[in-house]
Amino acid sequence: MSGDKTQGRSGAAAGEDFTPRRLYGRSKGKALRPGQARLIDELLPKLLLDLSAPAPHDARALFDSRVRETRLEIGFGGGEHLIATAARNPDVGFIGCEPFVNGMARLLARIAAEGLGNIRLRQGDAIEVVDWLPDASLARVYLFYPDPWPKRRHRKRRLVSPDNLAKLARVMTPGAQLRFATDIDDYAGWTLARLAASPDFDWRAQSAQDWLSPWDGWTQTKYEAKAMAAGRKPVYLTFARR
Ligand SMILES: C[S@@+](CC[C@H](N)C(=O)[O-])C[C@H]1O[C@@H](n2cnc3c(N)ncnc32)[C@H](O)[C@@H]1O
């Protein structure tokens, strides 16, 4: 199977999940290996959320009956954090969103290898999932190393925006955490300013030491490892839904 065909099926040709580069950065990358292509063809459809159907009244209904709460990871990249957190918390349902097909293929390989049953997926824009979910359905949201869009004229594409914060607030339960990490100082300041201006979130008072240390049980992502190897220092911010 050629890489081009594989990419086409996961992109524009598939119709449903094409994610324009101009909006979300990369949605295509290296050609998939045959095993990865098979996972995209066979396993992914079983785990994808069907946004054309009405959302359940209770997001836990997307998972089996053991699940006591639902969390969302936006832009899971290679899925390192999502896999480790889902494996540690079999009674939590995780929704992972990622437009980038190679990241999706890596995650699927880990889901298959570890036999995880508590992950549902969206190959595309996480905000479409947020718009679809019922009110107060998420107990936690993870947003790690979102694309920084460093050019001034591109900053409006950043995922942290007043509109997206209001959308997230609608689907988060009172007290639910929004966990955010970045290695870009400007994005940290941008995020603090927007969260401070939001009527829906409190910044959990953290000492400087706290925001330089990851959360307990943190699993380092590939992106973070590269950022640190390049000498950049991540910050880890926790906000609580009011
Ligand atoms: C810099 S990477 C970080 C990936 C991962 N969180 C990590 O720490 O390794 C940002 C990721 O967000 C994804 N992304 C960008 N816009 C998105 C959106 N609207 N919805 C979901 N994922 C998105 C990109 O495809 C990319 O994989």
UniProtKB/TrEMBL annotation:
<feature type="binding site">
    <location>
        <position position="151"/>
    </location>
    <ligand>
        <name>substrate</name>
    </ligand>
</feature>
<dbReference type="GO" id="GO:0008176">
    <property type="term" value="F:tRNA (guanine(46)-N7)-methyltransferase activity"/>
</dbReference>
<dbReference type="Pfam" id="PF02390">
    <property type="entry name" value="Methyltransf_4"/>
</dbReference>
<comment type="pathway">
    <text>tRNA modification; N(7)-methylguanine-tRNA biosynthesis.</text>
</comment>
<dbReference type="InterPro" id="IPR029063">
    <property type="entry name" value="SAM-dependent_MTases_sf"/>
</dbReference>
<feature type="binding site">
    <location>
        <position position="183"/>
    </location>
    <ligand>
        <name>substrate</name>
    </ligand>
</feature>
<keyword id="KW-0489">Methyltransferase</keyword>
<comment type="similarity">
    <text>Belongs to the class I-like SAM-binding methyltransferase superfamily. TrmB family.</text>
</comment>
<feature type="binding site">
    <location>
        <position position="147"/>
    </location>
    <ligand>
        <name>S-adenosyl-L-methionine</name>
    </ligand>
</feature>
<dbReference type="InterPro" id="IPR003358">
    <property type="entry name" value="tRNA_(Gua-N-7)_MeTrfase_Trmb"/>
</dbReference>
<keyword id="KW-0808">Transferase</keyword>
<dbReference type="GO" id="GO:0043527">
    <property type="term" value="C:tRNA methyltransferase complex"/>
</dbReference>
<feature type="binding site">
    <location>
        <position position="73"/>
    </location>
    <ligand>
        <name>S-adenosyl-L-methionine</name>
    </ligand>
</feature>
<feature type="binding site">
    <location>
        <begin position="221"/>
        <end position="224"/>
    </location>
    <ligand>
        <name>substrate</name>
    </ligand>
</feature>
<feature type="binding site">
    <location>
        <position position="98"/>
    </location>
    <ligand>
        <name>S-adenosyl-L-methionine</name>
    </ligand>
</feature>
<keyword id="KW-0819">tRNA processing</keyword>
<protein>
    <recommendedName>
        <fullName>tRNA (guanine-N(7)-)-methyltransferase</fullName>
        <ecNumber>2.1.1.33</ecNumber>
    </recommendedName>
</protein>
<keyword id="KW-0949">S-adenosyl-L-methionine</keyword>
<comment type="function">
    <text>Catalyzes the formation of N(7)-methylguanine at position 46 (m7G46) in tRNA.</text>
</comment>
<feature type="binding site">
    <location>
        <position position="125"/>
    </location>
    <ligand>
        <name>S-adenosyl-L-methionine</name>
    </ligand>
</feature>
<dbReference type="InterPro" id="IPR055361">
    <property type="entry name" value="tRNA_methyltr_TrmB_bact"/>
</dbReference>
